[in-house]
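> Could you send the NAD-dependent epimerase/dehydratase family protein prediction when you get a chance?

Sure thing. Input:
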Amino acid sequence: MKLLVLGSEGFIGSHAVQYFRSEGYSVTCADIVLKAEPDYLLINPELPDFSSIFRNQVFDVCINATGAANVQLSFQYPALDYMINTVNVYNILDSIRQYNPGCKFINLSSAAVYGNPASLPIKETHAIQPLSPYGFHKWYSEQICKQFHLQHNLFTISLRIFSAYGEGLKKQLFWDLHKKISNSSDSIEMFGTGKESRDFIYVGDIMQAIKYIIDKEKFDGKAINVASGKEVTIEEVVYTFLKVFKRDIKIRFTGNTKIGDPLNWRADITALQALGFQPGTDLQSGIQKIAIWLKNQN
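Output:
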């Protein structure tokens, strides 16, 4: 099976390349990073020409991992975020429509489309109420996927990924926490109250979820939650991280929040489980894997 990973140099994209090659897929990579490698296509970041990719090769599956994933920056540069997370999706799908209509398209969306849900767990049928331009743009991309399925019979699906983590992610909670404890001997400050919660999913589990989706989903334009189905507070995550790193450091939560960040998340993953998926990496095991990687970054 021929698979195209757009955004192959990013966090999820790079893991997808490694995982699906290990599964025996013929994987072609594409990104804006300038390098010369077999099965690698260079994308012009200013004028991306997706049509040339699908005009010259035929793919069975396309994973779109090109999107920007920075909530705070989407407030500062909303037009750029819109281009990357919304317009690119339209252009990719229009190219597939013209040259490779049999290709299954996987759009990496985000749980940010839900904002602050009225109740937990969050089902795919919950109200869409984004808190940021990023969340709105991911929602728009889902609608584009649905449009191309309904109007052009393309095979599309959007994955509402919750709090992804793993080796190679050089931003967000675990990376920031590592930098703080590396530069402190006795105490650090963290945003929020510590009582905020997330549904963390290890990147290796995301890859397995994508594999189940490729093999068993209908690709009928819908969106599906990709998460562990477990809620954990930020305070608990921080102390688990410190325990794994064997650091005795005092944590002070400032009570300040970041714009666009939700309060509490836990996903309903019934739809994903119906395909056979079960998360294989619990939080402590995932943090232990991150710890090994982080120690090699010093």
